[in-house]
Structure of DNA-binding response regulator:
Amino acid sequence: MTIKVLLVDDERLIRAGLAAIINAEPDLSVVGEAADGAEVQDAVARTAPDVVLMDVRMPRLDGIQATRALLAAGGVPPKIIVVTTFENDEYVYDALKAGAAGFLLKRTRPEEILQAIRTVMHGESLLFPSAIRTLAAEHAPGGGGPGGGADWHGRLTDREADVLRLVARGHSNAEIASELFVSPQTVKTHVGNVLAKLQARDRTQAVIFAYETGFISPGA
């Protein structure tokens, strides 16, 4: 199956470079481009992409607002990867909380960009543990989040809590399975249960929620 990608960036050169990298792959194809977040919903409706590479800072409508609008539109939204220049960009954190599956730096190597697109298509989020810890450390622990309530962690079994901690370290399902001596399918089930109990859209939102509520310490 060919993975369809929409490029959203106000710099034409960036879009051209990404298109060249992506279109060179037999399983990937750029189906459209947009120069601003305000154009995203129309572009998605027109091209039906699987993945959107979304610049986080744009002049009219930034990537955060565009992400929120896209995910609120209903239906099955594409996976969104925000692209930024600085990993400690506050916009990145807001975009991840809004529902982006992960982020990439503009200096990321081409092969890593391609792998990122494939990773989110397989249902796993792009987590960069050190960057997430840095961003999360700037936000005081509280009781809010997707699942709400201070006692949310009591809903998790011990094994689900272990899985969430390993997800926060950036481990894939296969790596978690190896660590816990269970099957990848069992890990997938646990991850699904964690997301459902936390009412989180994806792994990234669950991890951010865990940091913000103090379940996981940014300094750990």
